[in-house]
Amino acid sequence: MSTARRDVAALYRELGLRGMNVGASGNVSARAKGGMIITPSGIAGDTVSPKLLVQMDLAGRSKSKLQPSSEWEMHAAIYRADPRAMVIVHTHSPYATALACLNLPLPAFHYGVLEFGGPEVRIAPYLTFGTPQLAAAAADAIQGRTAALLANHGMICHGPTARAALLAAARLEALAQQYLIARAAGEPRLLTPDEIESARIRYLSYGQVAKRKEDPK
Ligand SMILES: [Zn+2]
Q1: Where would you tag: which of 2, 11, 86, 154 has the fewest CB atoms within 10 A of its CB?
Q2: 209 or 53, which is more confident
């Protein structure tokens, strides 16, 4: 069994254990030779196994017996658009989804938002799940970034490894929670363009890429 299959199954299970994925609502994939390996449709994290994962090319061709996740096109569109994307997580995690249901992007209310590659985490417009239209909108919203919200739906993020993608999903969920708490208590002050630029440079120069890999959370 390939490491990629084991990693994807373990990541999908971990999302469930962390309360970030309920049942089979989310999906996980990894770029693989000839396309990707993705969680199957309708299988929850607690019952998935490496051999149940679906191998397919980015046009949707598969020899697997099981159907891939209904959102396979969203994953394929992101792999096609961004060579940095190696593992993709899509979930309906509670806080990120609550924010997405307000149809709000996640602004730079905290410098941690910059980790996703820009001054805000953008939000893709609401479109029917499992459609090529949603796939295109998600790929557009995440362009040049590593995470995006999906209006009235959830979130999607990617990383260079399964571990990095899990941490990205967990960090986005924590930031969405913090932002919603701050909004409930008042009007959060957003970072100014100068503060955003300064934090961005700090991220680049502080060796955060190496440090993040060691982060035990
Ligand atoms: Zn979904």
Answers
A1: 2
A2: 53
Burial of 130 (0-12, 13-18, 19+ CB in 10 A): middle
Residue 209, pLDDT score: 52
Report CA(173)–ligand 1 centroid distance (Å). 15
Please tell me the chain's helix, strand, coil percentages from 3-state DSSP, rounded to the nearest 5. Answer: 45, 15, 40
Q: 110-169, pLDDT tens digit by residue?
A: 999 999 999 999 999 999 999 999 999 999 999 999 999 999 999 999 999 999 999 999
Digit-coded pLDDT (tens) for 40-87: 999 999 999 999 999 999 999 998 999 999 999 999 999 999 999 999
What is the domain partition of the chain in residue ranges?
A: 3-214
CATH number of 3-214: 3.40.225.10
CA-only gyration radius of the chain, Å: 17
The residues, any chain, with a CB within 8 Å of residue 39's CB and separated by 6 or more, are: 8, 9, 12, 24, 27, 28, 29, 48, 53, 54, 68, 69
Q: Which of 71, 73, 115, 173 is catalytic?
A: 71
Say how far apart CA 66 and CA 62 lie, in whole Å. 9
> Is 120 among the catalytic positions?
no
